[in-house]
Amino acid sequence: MGVAWVLLCLCLSAAHAAVPLDGSWREVRPGDTPAGVLKDYRQGLLIPFEPGLPHSFPRGGLGTWVVLRPQPPWVEEERVLSIFPPAPGRITVYDGKALAGILALDSLPGATLGHGRLAYRYPVSRPAAAPMLLKLEPVEGPSRPVSFHLEGLTAFLAHDAHWLTLFSACFAVMLTMALMALCFALMLRDNTFSWYAGYIFCYALIQSLQTGFLFSPLELGWLAPSADLLESASVALSVAFAALFMARFCELQRFAPLLRAPVLALAIGMPLLVLMRTSPVGLLVQVAQALVDPLLILAALLMFVAATVAAAHGSRHAWFFLIGWTPLLALTALSSAQTSGTLPGMPWLSDASVVAGAFEAIVLSLGLGDRALTMRRDRDLVRQLADNDSLTGVLNRRAWSEAAERMLEDSAGRPLALLFLDLDRFKLLNDQQGHRAGDRALVEVAEALRAELRPSDLLGRYGGEEFIAMLDGVVEEQAMQVATRLCRRVHRLEIPVNAEFMLSVSIGVAMRVSGDTVETLIERADQAMYQAKVNGRNQARLFERQRHLPTQAWPRVAELDE
């Protein structure tokens, strides 16, 4: 949030009061000459307007003449006339009756002038009170309100530096957030981050086109002839990406299911408008131009309502969307009102919209960060549920086997022991006390084993009443000491099987030898555990090859526990 405050302060410092100018205008007529227009101006035949406030001029037909006359106090240095925001098309500048220059987005006058505006530099030799004559050449489509400022070169450069700092910071924030989201999209494989990146990138492109930042300082003037079409496409795509993003980010399917379909329809409808806008069929182009503004208003309101409903129903991330989206929505509505001729006293709206875009990018990035943490937490929980035995909480057989394979591979060159544990007379406990008592016994035994073993030891539930543990870095004597401790610990739990017996455990121990796999270790430890059963239970036995008995001569372990 601190970055947003810095951007807001830069925005306020970039705004400045209008230079005293009187302005008049009229549409171009056939046969007009600069001298004739200036004569009409002196006779008061032109329409007056306030140059420092945004004003919409008709740009159809042959264009519009604009006459500006500086008012005292005069500026005794080089002066710069700036037009903000940079108007589409060309503007011809006359010095009295003579052609002085042409201003256009694709021919801005250099790196030190014209950042975010069209600018023309008047020399000191020109009389300070002489009127300035401009001709706004005709363009297709609606015209945006523009304002005129005249100031000394020193003041202009100071304001230009503020503007360049503000907008560079805002665009840097937006593009950084978009790139970060793309990285998260690749890492987490979640399209929500991709839709966000697309939305922020399109919004940054819209603002860079409207302010001229794309042409100066970025020097992409070759895009100027298609700036109108590029802006329309960016607006439509930004709405489409925003709709896809907020539908998933705010979890509309869960918290606002009835509004999800209309929101997603926007994601389809807005790109269709772009296709209609680029169609060679004139009727389709006209329909697209007529529908775009109503659909933009509808889209903004629909997404605002959908996010509000989702937030009210418990969507945590919908609040992030509302906090970031609402200021931008309000400024967009105010800018639209200004375009239609209202709110002329708020020339800072264009700058504020860029700051609001950077603020929204920061807030939504915080929301996406929260989403990433939530996804990671949920994924870890799912993995834990998938890997752990639901009753005892130790690793289940699959997860233990996978972890044991890794431990066996990583511990090459070190001693390693495998303990196979089987509870004595557990079937009898289940038969006489019921399965709930058996479950409680398993939980207590698992807790006792976990408390006795090291955190690095691998403990798992291998079967019904069978547990298994792999101990890294222990020699034969240490492994037997651990197994003996486990036997005593389980017996001290004093879990009654019946009136005669307490629950105990028999443990078989196998030490890793060259060429061992997890399966061969388990096989030998299982045989040693059988020997512990045969020799009276409640004890640990180490596998010894010379004491190996033929498998077919062994009774089933279940029979020993009966």
Tell me the helix content: 40-55%
Main sheet attributes: strand count, strand direction, barrel closure = 6 strands, antiparallel
How many domains?
Answer: 3
Strand order of the largest sheet: 2-1-3-8-5-6
Count of individual beta strands: 14
Mean pLDDT rating: 83
CATH T-level fold name of the largest domain: Rhopdopsin 7-helix transmembrane proteins
Helical element count? 16
CATH architectural type of the largest domain: Up-down Bundle
Give the CATH class of the largest domain: Mainly Alpha
Q: What ranges have pLDDT less than 50 throughout 5 or more consecutive residues?
A: 1-18, 546-560
**Rg result:** 39 Å
How would you sum up this structure, described in words?
This protein is of the alpha+beta class and 562 residues long. The chain folds into three domains: 19-158, Immunoglobulin-like (Sandwich), CATH 2.60.40; 160-385, Up-down Bundle (Rhopdopsin 7-helix transmembrane proteins), CATH 1.20.1070; 397-560, Reverse transcriptase/Diguanylate cyclase domain (Alpha-Beta Plaits, 2-Layer Sandwich), CATH 3.30.70.270. It contains 16 helices and 14 strands. Strands 2-1-3-8-5-6 form a six-stranded antiparallel sheet, with helices on one face. A five-stranded mixed sheet has the order 11-12-10-13-14, with helices on both faces. Strand 11 and strand 12 form a beta hairpin. The chain is elongated, with a radius of gyration of 39 Å. Residues 1-18 and 546-560 have low confidence and may be disordered. This is diguanylate cyclase. GO terms for molecular function: diguanylate cyclase activity. It is an enzyme of class 2 (transferase). Residues 1-17 form the signal peptide.
